[in-house]
Amino acid sequence: MKHFYVFMMALVAGLFLGVASVSAATEEEVDYGVMELNKEYEMTSGNNFFGTFTPEKDGYLQVYTSGSSIFRPFKEWKGTAKETMALKDNEYSHTKIKAKTGYSNNDYEMLVKAGTTYYMCGSNSLARTVNVTFKMEPKTIEYYGSSVEEKGIVVSPTSNNTVSFKFNRAVTASAFIAYGDNKEESVTANFSSWSCTATANLKEGLLKLVTAGSIKEGDDLTIILRNIKESAGDADPLVYDGEIKVKVKMGKAPAMLQGATLDGVPVTADTKFLTYYAPGTGKLVLTFSKALDPTSGHASLIFGSFDDKDNGGYYREDNDDASDANAFKMKVVGNQVILDFSGKRRAVNDMVSSTESIRGADFTKINLQISNIEDTDGTRAFTTSSTTQGRFNYSFALDVPETNVSCEFTPDNGASIKDQEEVEIWITDYETLTFQGVSFSYDQEENGIEPGEDSEDNIDIIKDVVVDMKDIKVEQDKDAIKDNAYILTVPIPAEVKNMKNVTVSLYKVTCADGKDYTDAIAAKYNVVTDGIENITWNGNKAAKVYNLNGQQVSKDAKNLRGIYVVDGKKVVLK
């Protein structure tokens, strides 16, 4: 253990001395003396370098370096290269340029005056030798080539939608797509002073031309760069003589979103998302320019903030969530993506348990994210609203419908309908309701009706007799227009007139606020208050006798005492 400790101490000391020796090496200064044009100077690893350059005539000095080190021009000499380079505001301004060959990003050019001495200093921290060369050549704009020099390069709005042009210095220019019979479409361009490139952005231009039907797959296109001039330097910048053209081909046009509707109304920034959509409503439809892959696509509804998930402030609902039977559905049919949000209430308190946010989340908007939409060729659908193709995002203000549903029945609740022909139902906020008819329901067991074969001896069966909407007269109450009140005149089915405890209600009713109004809009007729009829029992008559659990107990009621069901009627046996 002692020897190991001694060894480690020696190793650390050796490393320290090694670092010190390297540091010392970087402090060594190499004097080039008077530096000459077109001569290659070596900057060995770990050293500082300096020299002087005095031009014989006015002009532009170009300095080319074969590595990432830079040999810079300074105004004053401070005794060493290190001190000269450290002096604030001592460096001459210069403009970045690029050599046609080589890999340095530190080549530059500067205006020099005859007879002026320039102090050139630099250091090489690389582990290899770097070469430096001075030149004084006429200032020009040189074109080195483009990113699509190969013939047959294919472009499209969704992929390979830029063309870069390389120069020896930073430039600006105008870019165009030439198509058809000498027609042109202007496109934007980006310029980099670091890489000395001009890049034509074809995405929006191609999209516009494809949408207008001006170009199609396989068409020959020409990308043109003109009005090329120096982007930095003198007040009278250099101008490139002529224009540059490269040939490309138009690839497959992607599926493009042509529009979106929610329940048939175009989606805009003002479109609101209801907290509840009744069945048959709540359909968001995205229509594209071509057929889509029916197996593509995924969608999520997002409410709140993921950062608030642990505090109950985050909600996510996915269209393919097998654990949520009421989750919205999405399908891709032809050139449309169809989302169905009906049948589930999404009020704020249904989605989150807290609206206290650590990130200031907006609990008034619900966000929809649709992703991975592809056409039948497997190409992602085009979108301008997202950097990811095939993705479409919507943010809707969450709208909670306000309803004021109330009702009145004629005859009144509790009355008899044995001698009536119809029931009138007066309902406010009628247009917020959706239903499929009016139900007259009764308990078969209460009314002495023996259950059918599928009842499994359960005699407490509620039977619904539904009057279809086509048989119901619906008219607006002109005296209560502000209440959105309507009157339903419903014929009473003959089958139920003489039944006891008949409940009249709207059949399969839903409301815009998502609440269940089945019991709220209801009345009961032919009411038997205690559920037991005064029946004279002929004890000598054989009959099926059941207890109140629906179990048959006897065919002879002579010796039974209490409340039983005999021949489908509740009776008291004494």
Task: Give the arrangement of secondary structure elements.
Blueprint: H1 2-26, E1 29-34, E2 40-43, E3 48-53, E4 59-65, E5 72-74, H2 81-86, E6 95-96, E7 108-112, E8 118-123, E9 130-135, E10 143-146, E11 154-155, E12 162-167, E13 171-179, E14 183-187, E15 189-192, E16 197-201, H3 203-211, E17 220-230, E18 244-250, E19 257-262, E20 265-266, E21 272-274, E22 283-288, E23 298-304, E24 314-318, E25 329-333, E26 336-340, H4 348-351, E27 365-371, E28 392-399, E29 407-410, E30 422-427, E31 433-434, E32 437-443, E33 462-468, E34 473-476, E35 486-491, E36 502-506, E37 510-511, E38 522-525, E39 545-546, E40 552-554, E41 562-566, E42 569-573
Parallel strand pairs: 1-3, 11-18, 21-28
Antiparallel strand pairs: 2-9, 3-8, 4-7, 4-9, 5-8, 6-7, 10-12, 12-16, 13-14, 13-17, 15-16, 17-18, 19-20, 19-22, 22-26, 23-24, 23-27, 25-26, 27-28, 29-30, 30-35, 31-37, 32-33, 32-36, 34-35, 36-38, 39-40, 39-41, 41-42
How does this structure look, described?
It is built from four helices and 42 strands. The protein has 574 residues and is mainly beta. The protein folds into five domains: 25-135, Jelly Rolls (Sandwich); 143-250, Immunoglobulin-like (Sandwich), CATH 2.60.40.1220; 257-399, Immunoglobulin-like (Sandwich); 407-525, no CATH class; 532-574, no CATH class. A hairpin with a 4-residue loop joins strand 15 and strand 16 (197-201).
Rg value = 43 Å
Name the CATH architecture of the largest domain.
Answer: Sandwich
Main sheet properties: 5 strands, antiparallel
**Intertermini distance:** 105 Å
- How many domains make up the 3D coordinates? 5
Q: State the helix count.
A: 4
The number of E-state strands comes to 42
Q: Quick one: overall form?
A: elongated
- In the CATH scheme, what's the topology name of the largest domain? Immunoglobulin-like
Arrangement of strands in the largest sheet = 2-9-4-7-6
In terms of structural class, how would the helical and strand content be classed?
mainly beta
Outline the low-pLDDT stretches.
1-26, 454-459, 531-537
Helix content: under 10%
